[in-house]
Amino acid sequence: MTERITAPGDLGRRIARRRESLGLDRERLARRAGIDPGYLAYLEEAAASPGADTVGRLASALETSTQELLGGAIDPPPGHGRPAALPELEKLDPEECLRLISPGGVGRVAFNDLGGPAILPVNYVLHEGSVIFRTAFGGPLDADLRTGVKGVDFKIAFEVDHIDDANREGWSVLVRGGLHHAATSEEQAAAAASRVQPWAGGDRGLYVRIVPSEITGRRVRPGHS
Question: What positions does the domain HTH cro/C1-type occupy (predicted)?
Fold first, then answer.
């Protein structure tokens, strides 16, 4: 019985992007992989579950690994794939940066505490132009990041990135701005409207808002010869 592969991501998109980065049309890739061109078109355009042998032959023809073609490994950190032959580094404008991070997810807060530089991951939401997340009262993002002066906030950095090993591309966005703890009932209600939900357990009733004062980003992708 042929083992079927359920891809953890968009397998068809990865096949097409990798094929295009190598300058191959469907006919040439199909010949390389020993599969029918019509079936290759189906794989690229539909949510298919090809056999393990087919995925292996496609990966070989695309000069990549089965693991990377299926979206990369789950446990190791991203970035193990080989770089593209002609990578291009593009600076992103603030509007594109905000578009990329607008779905929310996991970002990293960088700050200085009493022990020195620190970076912590948080679940965030982009809400009304600000980054919103929740943390615990008394935690590392609470007392150590309060200036004690009304209207004056510590300036911190917030970073979000995405790596696509199979397609040898990715982006990163860096937001700098003041870290403000929601103190009044009005501020708490406004932050709660973002509906941000932390993955970490425990009581995380402290809403924190980062108001961007500087937004920069970069994107790397395969170039064209």
Answer: 15-69
